[in-house]
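Request from the bench team (R.T.):
"We need a structural guess for the complex before ordering more adenosine-5'-diphosphate. Sequence and SMILES attached. Just send the tokens back."

Command: build protein-adenosine-5'-diphosphate structure.
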Amino acid sequence: MGEILRYEHVDISYNGRPAVRDLSFTLDEGEILGIVGESGSGKSTLLKAAMGLLGRDGLVTRGDIWYKGKNLPDLKEKELRRLNGPELAMIFQNAGASFCPIRTVGAQLYEGMAEHGAISKAEFRALAVELLQKLGFENGGRILDSYPFELSGGMQQRVGIACAMLMNPSVLLADEPTSALDVSVQKQAVEEMLLARKNFGASIIIATHNIGVVGAMADRVLVMRNGAAVEYGETAQVLERPRENYTRMLMSAVPRLRR
Ligand SMILES: Nc1ncnc2c1ncn2[C@@H]1O[C@H](COP(=O)(O)OP(=O)(O)O)[C@@H](O)[C@H]1O
Ligand SMILES: [Mg+2]
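Reply to R.T.: structure attached below.
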């Protein structure tokens, strides 16, 4: 398995204040990497850095983030936007909130896709319905014709997950994708992401404070604290034989999901 993404000694600051320090890891093709750590430990910052979404105050001040021979922090905004969707896609904690309330889900997904190249509405619809069905939505057409308010929060989040997969990205960056969901829907969302890997070969990084989700999904785990890596290894090793007290403490704080 080749490697698709590599962080090398990455430092990130907001207004000169360090938020991530000397972070290195690799993501293999088809791998799922879990990033865990308490709130404020730098998980979102790490993911946003790859997408160029740190905002005006944030900056990668040292190190490289390699994706297919390109160092992402060196790319111009326009180049990053071109990658965003077909190559790298992000799932946000509250995907529902990013839908516009007065237009149908389908219209919004179509617009996002049309930005990256010519696709007819009919082609889009066929593709989207098929994807939604693969991800366990019985009536994909009805989802596309819905307004966001007609879907429950859990449903919106699952559609957000599906939407990130629409352009078949090589890498999915999922930032607390299940945190806002109740437990039953959490499991569905986890299954959807696992299907993304199975059906499309996607590599996934999932940032979460939920060790249960990591145990159910991840091949490797990176544990973060105060912007630095505390522990990094195979999921079974990190969860069952953690080397650090901090990891043990995190694990005792959350219930586990069954694999
Ligand atoms: N836009 C921002 N401006 C200034 N500081 C920020 C910004 N976003 C995050 N931070 C700071 O960076 C650190 C890491 O935050 P974040 O990456 O959001 O952590 P996590 O996702 O693990 O909760 C925190 O100290 C947070 O306050
Ligand atoms: Mg976060």
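Two things stood out. The two ends are 23 Å apart (CA to CA). The first strand starts at residue 3 and ends at 14.
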